[in-house]
Amino acid sequence: MSSPVLRRLPVAPEADDALLESLSARFAETAADHDRSGAFPHDNFAALHEHGLIALVAPRVHGGSGASLQDARRVLAAVAYGEPATALILTMTWLQHQAIGRGDSRWPAHLRERVLRDSVRDGALINALRVEPALGSPARGGLPATIAQREGDQWRLSGHKLYTTGIEGLRWLAVWGRTDEASPRVGVFLVPRDAPGVRVIASWDHLGLRASGSHEVVFEDVAIPLDHAADLRAPAAWAPDAGSQTDIDAHATQQVWMTVLLGTLYDAVARAARDWLLGFVNRRAPSGLGAPLATLPRVQENVGEIEALLHSSRVLLDQAAARADAGQPPSATQSGLLKYSVTSHSIRAVELALQLSGNHGLTRQNPLERHYRDVLCSRIHTPQNDAILVNAGKAALVAAA
């Protein structure tokens, strides 16, 4: 296996190169089965928890490893190389751990402690539930239709969420909703997955990342304590440039973590596709050619283009992770451009591999067609390409003016 990043992990010495390669190979063995069935990868998460990797990003004070973004990127690359749906679910948990584990988190201390300790002790997973049928992605604006009504010492939560990645394995749901107050507040309500009234609609039947189990969830008058309102603000206070400088910096840090981890995931898928292709063109020797396909200049040129794309992505991701770890995260516009570049590179690399392999690459007996379906999912994550390019274009035009 070609390891995407070859560096020891100082905060978790047990996660050495040999372990990560072993886990990656183990996950790859069952990746096709999970893709066909869409079954949640329980065994993969049991293995990750066994080695303390689910709580890798959780702060040390809560029992985690307190990993940097560079270290998290290294581990995630190995997981995604083997089975990307597992990596996507893991990414969503890590992003929550990073956000609530920061010293400037707005979450109440008792909720932070509960979620992070559960992860350390049990490998408990958490994800944010934000997208709705009418609202779409909250990044596009608008108030959520998920409503919390105050009743005595409880909130009663009702709503409908889409694309709840990993729902079959989650313990905690960070639900984006609004209060029913005259001047509604918007924010996060922490809901236990097993709370009465939480209903899953098994609707996920996607082209790629099929084992992510991104089903729908309906909340039917779900009761949670008042102190499970993790972070409520006036709607305007959620704007990326609103609030204190601390809030702005926290948003920029969260953006680069999301961009780098998701970029690493899809880059790893492209690298797995590249490695399959290299084996194929070195083995495949058509009788009319009398030599492996790898000897053809056209094949060599296309493989060279794939190498250039993957090299560019690695440099961009490494630089962004290093800046974030140094406390100088890229701006939201720069993070968006990073996402656009890396996802475009990843998709193009797999497309080139398909062109070179022909029918062989598209057969279900080989993993390349699965890699292609998975890598196409990179476009759907927030921010989407149109928003990225509009924001970058506006910034460039304003700077020129």
TrEMBL record:
SUPFAM superfamilies found in the cross-reference section: Acyl-CoA dehydrogenase C-terminal domain-like, Acyl-CoA dehydrogenase NM domain-like
Cofactor: FAD
Any GO MF annotation of the entry: oxidoreductase activity
InterPro entries: Acyl-CoA_Oxase/DH_mid-dom, Acyl-CoA_Oxase/DH_mid-dom_sf, AcylCo_DH-like_C, AcylCo_DH/oxidase_C, AcylCoA_DH/ox_N, AcylCoA_DH/ox_N_sf, AcylCoA_DH/oxidase_NM_dom_sf, Mito_Isobutyryl-CoADH
Domain Acyl-CoA oxidase/dehydrogenase middle residues, every copy: 132-222
CDD domains: ACAD
Swiss-Prot/TrEMBL keywords: FAD, Flavoprotein, Oxidoreductase
EC number: 1.-.-.-
Sequence ranges assigned to domain Acyl-CoA dehydrogenase/oxidase C-terminal in this UniProt record: 269-380
Domain Acyl-CoA dehydrogenase/oxidase N-terminal span(s) in chain numbering: 23-92
Gene3D superfamilies from the UniProt entry: Acyl-CoA dehydrogenase/oxidase, N-terminal domain, Butyryl-CoA Dehydrogenase, subunit A, domain 2, Butyryl-CoA Dehydrogenase, subunit A, domain 3
Lineage: superkingdom: Bacteria
Family of this protein: Belongs to the acyl-CoA dehydrogenase family.
Name of the protein in its database record: Acyl-CoA dehydrogenase family protein
Species of provenance: Variovorax ureilyticus
